[in-house]
Structure formats: C-alpha cells, structure tokens
Amino acid sequence: MKKKDTAKRPFSSLSTRSFHAGGYSVAAAVIVLAIAVAVNALVGNLPSTYTKLDTTANGLYTVSEQTEKVLSGLDEEIDIYWIVQSGYEDTNIATLLDRYSSLSDKISVTKKDPDVYPTFAKQYYDGQLYNNSLVVCRGDRYRYIDYNSIYEYDYSGGSVSQNFAGEGELTSAISYVVNDAMPTLYILTGHGEAELSSTFKTAIEKQNIQTESLSLLTVEAVPEDAGALLINTPQSDISEDEAQKIADYLASGGR
Question: What is the bridge-based pairing of β-strands 184-188 and 226-230?
C-alpha cells in the first residue's frame, strides 16, 4: 500500500477531506549571516530567557541547551495542541513533541484532528490552516505556529535545501507564553531612518522582542523599559539635545 505523504496539507474545508488536492504554499525566508549577527548584537545584553534561541536544528532527535534550560525552568502547565488529520502526522514533529514532553512534566501534548474538532483551531487562528500546525498555550496566552514556519527553504545556488526549524519555533512560543512582559526594542525616528527589512523584522519577532517607534524630540529621555535603541541609517543629523539623551541612556547601561 502506498505510504501517505506527510507534507503539509491545507484544510480547504475543516469538515471534509478535500485537502487531498492541496499543494505547497511555502513562504521562504532566508536570514543571512549579517542579519543574524546584527540581531545578536542588539539583544546580547538582554536576560537569557529573552535572547536568541537555537533555530537551526542540526539533529532532529536532540534539543539545544537553551531549550533544555527553558523547559527545566517551567513552573506552570503548558498545553501544546497538534493540529493534524489522522494519518498525516509529520514524523519530525512527532519526535520533537515527544522529546519536549519527556523533558518536562509541565508540557502536555494533545492531538486535535480538524475532522473531529472542526472549529477548535479557529479560536487561535482564522487564516488558512495546514496539517501539523501547532498551538502553544498557557492560560489565555497563546501562540499559533503555522506549518510553513516549521520548515525553512533556501532556494539559493540553483537548488532547494530544507531545514527543520521546529525546535526554534516551539521553544520561542513557549518562552513567549510564559513571559507576560517582553523586552522592547525602540527604533529612532525623525531623521529619515530606513525601514527595517522584512527578514530583520522576522528575526526580531522570533526572539519575542516587541518594537516601538521613538522620537526623542517629544520625550525627556529614552524610556526605562528599553531593551535596546536602534538607529537605522538616519538621513539627517541628530540634534545635540537628542544626542545627549542617547548618551545619558548609554551611560546608564543602555544598548
């Protein structure tokens, strides 16, 4: 009997199996080394629970030291819902979820077949659903992990390479739901600063860092909750008053 394809399959109807004709709809995002270095530099002084997670799983059957630290520090129940139709379970995700639940008794994994629970996922995500997507919850706080983000694709070099990024996505989601207060990266405005690239924004979001625009012309100082201040290629001079506020922020331990 021919083995079923475990690749992602969209649910065109949550109450039917018409997904069989579904195709791939992969949003490829390649974060280059320069951006990775820049993100590390920006968040290097933040608490370890907020800083960069291991998002490059070189081995599918092991987890990083950072993930082990996050899981060992859990003191509240974390529910992980695996949204997948019976018979289409991704074996890599199954292995990863088994590993997480074995490392912490606070992790509970529940499979939700959309044929059996057609409306379950809608309370967390109202877009196009794919088999093997995940929902991580702590009370009312949750994060939806789309299957498209669990596998990363590199189309450079004339060929396609695939990377399983499930650990980075899952550990980032767990870190997000257990921390009610996320660090803030303030982005200076008012001098024709360049927009952040989509890949850079994605990298920041994956670290559970929220961003806020900041005009130093309208405030007395850089906000106290600033994890870092980003000045992205301004096209006009920063005033002496603004420069003094930035210097004061740095002198008090800012980044």
Answer: parallel
